[in-house]
Write a structure and sequence with these properties.
This protein has 352 residues and is α/β, with parallel strands linked by helices. 49% of the residues lie in helices and 8% in strands. The chain starts with a helix and ends with a helix.
Length: 352
């Protein structure tokens, strides 16, 4: 069976005309696992018959099924942060992610923050068991953030320009990676983010988005920018960043050095430039924080087969955890969404 025949297996999964179709290339779905889990955990206050919160677990599975049905991927990667994943960035910038506010669920669900954290951990462990029953790949490396793995994967998998990767996350850091082959998808807004979308929303092209974010700061990661710099002032004082030409942080330094007498913002940027360089480095996904061993590990993982679909074990977990109607007609959910991908994976492995 040749490549085109394999792709026909998935192009016929459903007829959703809103989902982009890729001819003669791979469609790779890369999911920021913890990001998707936490958003479901915070929003869905699902409780099973035993009074146990299952919102993160059930919501993740439901979201995953919807994404696969809409995007019709040929392969699926779910990436999680590794143990101690923020250490490298905290060494550069100690305030990185410090005091980061958490998405909270309805307070009625938990008697304390400790109970809520225990539920998160328990549901993630259960979730991994479910995911290992589906024809997908799961990846996590100790000491490595999911962002770095996703960035490296997305670039590696689109070296063949016929391929497209769809990054599913609410994290704006990924906007700097967006191009014609790397597309970001926000499941809450059900929005595909293309280079045109980034330009329309932020006034900059993706290749200059990191400069925009470095100067403006990122409250979600506790990364400070230039004090007093807002969107309007940015467009006025750093209009060069808005153009199609790709700029560097050194270009920003030159602009500030040349114009420092014109506005106090330029002076503040120069005074704080060491911290701006550190912020730029920790947010730069074009150069992910991976050593050669970690990169080789990811490359080897790409070559490995996905998990085999294990319907019996999945259903055993599903009924034991009391997920009930979280997935409407769970048997059909498995057969309609996952059996075609499982057949595709098996045909592809035999073809290779």
């Amino acid at each position: 069976m040749n490549k085109n025949d394999l792709l026909k297996l998935l192009n016929n999964i459903n007829e959703d005309k809103d989902a982009p179709i890729v001819d003669e290339g791979e469609r790779v779905l890369i999911i920021d696992g913890l990001n998707l889990f936490l958003r479901n955990f915070a929003v869905l206050n699902y409780i099973n018959a035993e009074g146990i919160h299952i919102g993160g677990l059930g919501g993740f599975l439901r979201s995953l099924g919807s994404l696969v049905k809409q995007l019709k991927p040929t392969s699926i990667y779910i990436i999680f942060d590794g143990v101690g994943s923020s250490i490298n960035r905290k060494n550069l910038l100690p305030e990185y992610k410090s005091g980061r506010s958490e998405l909270r669920v309805n307070k009625i669900s938990f008697s304390s923050q400790e109970k809520e954290n225990e539920s998160k951990t328990d549901q993630i462990i259960h979730l991994i068991h479910y995911l290992q029953c589906l024809p997908i790949k799961i990846l996590s490396l100790d000491g490595v953030e999911a962002d770095d793995i996703i960035a490296f994967l997305s670039k590696e998998l689109t070296k063949n320009k016929k391929n497209k990767t769809y990054i599913v996350s609410a994290d704006n850091d990924f906007l700097q990676l967006v191009n014609e082959n790397i597309i970001m998808y926000r499941s809450v807004e059900k929005e595909f983010i293309s280079p045109k979308t980034v330009k329309e929303k932020y006034g900059v092209y993706p290749h200059n988005f990191l400069l925009y974010k470095t100067l403006m700061g990122d409250n979600s990661d506790k990364v400070g920018g230039v004090k007093g710099l807002g969107t309007k002032k940015f467009k006025k004082l750093f209009s060069e960043v808005l153009d199609l030409k790709k700029l560097t942080l050194d270009n920003i330094y030159d602009i500030c050095a040349k114009k420092f007498k014109e506005n106090v913002i330029y002076c503040r940027a120069l005074e704080n430039f060491d911290n701006l360089r550190k912020a730029y480095k920790i947010m730069d996904l074009s150069n992910p924080m991976l050593d050669e061993v970690e990169k080789e590990c990811i490359l080897e993982y790409i070559k490995e087969n996905s998990y085999d679909l294990n319907i019996e074990t999945f259903l055993k977990f599903y009924h034991k955890d009391g997920l009930g109607n979280v997935l409407k007609n769970v048997d059909y959910w498995i057969k309609d969404i996952w059996e075609p991908i499982n057949r595709y994976n098996k045909a592809k492995s035999h073809d290779i």
